[in-house]
TrEMBL record:
It comes from the Eukaryota. Keywords: Coiled coil. GO terms for biological process: actin filament polymerization. This is F-BAR domain-containing protein. One of its GO terms (cellular component) is actin filament. InterPro entries: AH/BAR_dom_sf (IPR027267), F_BAR_dom (IPR031160), FCH_dom (IPR001060). Residues 155-166 have a biased composition (Polar residues).
Length: 335
């Protein structure tokens, strides 16, 4: 299939018309506006990434698991560390996006300067072409009018050929002769202007073709550059996703090493108190035995073998009876 080109499809039957040229220029202006919009889009995305990076950096500095211990603490510290790394990677991404936007801005300005020279030249040719065409059309009208004046003067001479007034005939001949000279002069000027406008047209045609080729080349470069720039923009965003995932993978690996039982045992070994619970609280009857006084030392338990025998029965004999000491080690001192 044959490729279509600007130079083949933007002509007009009216020599003074600039409709085809204006359509191309409008297309270029729209393309320039598209570049500016894409540039603003990328700058806005860079600002978003920068703000996100700063927010992440602030988040990484917040307390998280300060009182935790052992493997879980190490994993939470890894989470904060990698969050900081992710924030730095997003900050770098924002710088890269701004660099791409700057390249697009420079490309747009470069095309603008190149177009400006061609447009100025074409505008001058359009004015020259319109001026010369108008001049030619005016000379044509003058030429046609002079021709009609000549024909009228010739007709007057022919109508008065048989008149006897010699002076009147001479006057008519003089007018006819003057009309003929005027018509010839108008014809010469008209032909001169036609030649001039032809030269202007030829120059305009060549410059119009050159401008079309140059504008078409610019359009192709713009489309290709904008496509590649957006492609690079997306690659940077995709790479950021990969980088973030790699950093998060380090956190996942750390949490894989987080051992629940080890953390429990670590806490027990670090903060243990005793391995025996308090004794059971027993019931003590008030009437069974002498209650210990508060704060008094515990009483000595009674000996297994009593030191003296049973007391005598006083009803059996009125005589005084003293107890006998059967144990040679007996003593009244209790200890």
């Amino acid at each position: 299939m044959k490729n279509l080109h600007f130079k083949d499809f933007f002509w007009n039957s009216d020599l003074t018309s600039t409709a085809g040229y204006d359509a191309i220029v409008q297309y270029l202006n729209d393309g320039k506006r598209t570049c500016k919009e894409a540039e603003d889009f990328m700058k806005a995305r860079a600002s978003i990434e920068e703000k996100y990076a700063k927010d992440l950096l602030g988040l990484s500095k917040k307390v998280c698991g300060h009182n935790e211990m052992n493997t879980l603490k190490r994993s939470l510290d890894m989470l904060k560390l990698q969050t900081e790394h992710v924030s730095l990677s997003h900050l770098q991404l924002s710088h890269s996006l701004r660099e791409e936007a700057k390249k697009l801005e420079e490309f747009r300005e470069k095309q603008k300067d190149a177009r400006k020279k061609v447009e100025q030249q074409m505008d001058a040719l359009h004015k020259q072409k319109a001026s010369q065409y108008k001049k030619t059309m005016d000379s044509k009208k003058t030429y046609e009018q002079k021709c009609r004046d000549k024909e009228e003067a010739d007709q007057n001479v022919n109508r008065n050929t048989n008149t006897s007034n010699t002076k009147h005939i001479e006057k008519l001949f003089s007018k006819a002769q003057q009309a003929k000279q005027n018509a010839e002069e108008a014809d010469r000027l008209y032909q001169q202007n036609v030649t001039a406008v032809g030269k202007v047209r030829d120059e305009w045609l060549k410059e119009h073709i050159k401008a079309c080729e140059m504008f078409e080349k610019q359009s192709m470069e713009r489309i290709n550059f904008l496509r590649n720039t957006v492609w690079t923009h997306l690659n940077l965003l995709s790479q950021q996703c990969v980088t973030s995932d790699e950093l998060y993978e380090e956190v996942r690996k750390s949490f894989e090493q987080c051992d629940v039982q080890e953390d429990i045992e670590h806490f027990v070994n670090l903060r243990r108190i005793d391995d025996k619970p308090p004794a059971l609280v027993v019931y003590e009857n008030f009437y069974s035995g002498q209650r210990a006084q508060p704060g008094a030392p515990p009483s000595r338990p009674p000996p297994q073998n009593p030191r003296r025998g049973p007391l005598p029965d006083p009803t059996e004999n009125n005589d005084v009876i003293y107890s006998t000491v059967q144990d040679a080690g007996y003593s009244v001192i209790q200890y």
